[in-house]
Amino acid sequence: MQTIAIAAVSSQTFSTTLNNVLYNFAIYYTQNGMCYDLSIGGLAVVTGQRIVTGWYLIPFTCYEQGNGNFFLLTENNTLPDYTQFGTTQILIWLTGAEISTAVAAGLASTPAIVPYAL
Prior knowledge:
Strand order of the largest sheet: 2-3-4-5
Radius of gyration: 13 Å
Strand content: 35-45%
Number of strands: 7
Largest sheet: 4 strands, antiparallel
């Protein structure tokens, strides 16, 4: 598991490279909650999607390589709130192997990770 730094601001963009793959994020507040855009290797895969706590940020249909996935974990399974980013809400990356291990141990289900206490 790797923590990805996100700022406690209402709108941000950032890039990260994991397992030799470039991920570009835009995370922003809308009247419907926290949303995000995501491109992988320069290809847009998500635009305007609402962030759901403990749910895959890379859509399951794009997860064919089993490279890994991002999750926003929140304390007490609360709704995403940018004012809590980096404190009680964290963005994490799990490799495909870590996801498989969590599912096998009953700590997670497919396709979502069950949020746990930070």
